[in-house]
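Progress note, sequence design subtask.
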């Protein structure tokens, strides 16, 4: 378990209420309290006494509730105000005989503040149930989400609900290409995506359709995608890999109309969290089965994971400040796979030639400026300029824009 140093942050005081950051220790506290009603009642009563009398001694807090200790040190006012508000609301609801269905403690806590940042690094240790609570994705004001060091092997499709997200940190998890859902594309304001130290073979192809991205960190993924670069000098015959039908996958039969409607919505790539054409009641169902499908990068088709498809490798040269980065896509048919690979390869070759041209022009300009002036034995002043060798003629010969320079 990673804990931030207690001194790294100012305690929450009456004069420091502008903080809009929500932390992992608060999440662990709320999750624990909403899963244990007896514990929740016990601490509600103690905190109520603390609200009434500042000097009330809460007694020893067991080590297993370390997140309560940290919350009381760092966000005491916020916690006490929340408890008070909940008690008042409970009294109103009791009088009105009202029951709030589906509302969790975490939902109410998040909605009682307009949080802008969720700092949830290192909240799970190895072997924990590290399922991310769906409530955290339903905060419309969030711009910063950090989930580093959590052993995450998947990101839920709910991430697409965070329409204002600008910064997403997923560093040091166990994410593979299939772990990052296509719904991330609905985060139109995402500028920074940190994917360092995961298990990716290449970047997810749909990132290329996110023009808002300015920074994507990918270091530490299989040695900078080293093995994927073996496809760099290949073409359509090598970069499209057939993924066969998985026979042991048990499919429910027959599927409901709702299921087929959901498949069509997922394939269409519409933002079902925002599109008014999608009934709100259907959104939760779509989210619940979203990860059962692959989405074609080229056409509007979604197929169940067990159905055949194609993995496609392309290269973007350059990409956001990097010389060359591989991408991995999924396509529903060979023609869709070719529809992605062929234009991408032409673009890659064109970009590589442009880089070669710029390099040659730079070398040529340098060499023109460079000259050796010396005096011959008979006293004459002479000037020597080195011979210019065009870069393209020194390639491996496989193709003109090749980077395998034979020196
Ligand atoms: Zn397709």
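Output:
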């Amino acid at each position: 378990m990673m804990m931030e140093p207690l001194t790294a942050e100012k305690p929450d005081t009456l004069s420091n209420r502008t903080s809009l950051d929500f932390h992992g220790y608060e999440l662990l506290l709320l999750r624990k309290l909403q899963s244990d009603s007896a514990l929740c009642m016990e601490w509600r009563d103690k905190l109520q006494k603390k609200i009434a009398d500042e000097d009330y001694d809460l007694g020893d807090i067991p080590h297993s509730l370390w997140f309560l200790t940290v919350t009381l040190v760092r966000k005491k006012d916020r916690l006490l105000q929340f408890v008070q508000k909940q008690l008042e609301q409970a009294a109103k609801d009791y009088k009105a005989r009202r029951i709030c269905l589906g509302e969790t403690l975490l939902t109410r806590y998040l909605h009682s503040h307009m949080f802008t940042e969720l700092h949830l690094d290192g909240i799970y240790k190895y072997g924990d149930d590290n399922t991310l609570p769906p409530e955290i994705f339903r905060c419309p004001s969030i711009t910063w989400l950090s989930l580093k060091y959590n052993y995450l092997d998947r990101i839920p499709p709910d991430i697409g609900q965070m329409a204002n997200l600008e910064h997403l940190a997923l560093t040091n998890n166990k994410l593979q290409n299939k772990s990052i859902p296509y719904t991330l594309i609905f985060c139109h304001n995402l500028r920074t995506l940190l994917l360092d130290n995961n298990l990716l073979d290449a970047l997810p192809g749909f990132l290329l359709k996110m023009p808002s991205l300015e920074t994507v960190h990918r270091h530490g993924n299989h040695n900078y995608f080293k093995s994927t670069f073996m496809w760099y000098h290949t073409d359509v015959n090598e970069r499209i890999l057939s993924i066969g039908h998985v026979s042991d996958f048990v499919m429910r039969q027959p599927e409901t109309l709702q299921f087929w409607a959901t498949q069509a919505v997922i394939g269409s790539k519409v933002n079902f969290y925002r599109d008014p054409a999608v009934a709100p009641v259907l959104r939760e169902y779509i989210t619940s089965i979203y990860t059962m499908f692959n989405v074609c990068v080229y056409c509007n088709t979604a197929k169940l994971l067990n159905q055949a498809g194609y993995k496609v490798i392309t290269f973007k040269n350059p990409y956001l400040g990097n010389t060359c980065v591989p991408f991995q896509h999924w396509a529903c048919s060979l023609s869709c796979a070719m529809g992605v690979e062929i234009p991408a390869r032409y673009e890659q070759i064109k970009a590589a030639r442009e880089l070669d041209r710029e390099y040659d022009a730079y070398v040529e300009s340098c060499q023109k400026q460079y000259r050796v002036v010396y005096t011959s034995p008979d006293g004459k002043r002479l000037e020597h300029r080195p011979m210019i060798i065009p870069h393209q003629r020194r390639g491996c010969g496989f193709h003109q824009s090749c980077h395998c320079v034979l020196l």
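The mean pLDDT is 85. Work on this subtask will continue into the next period as scheduled.
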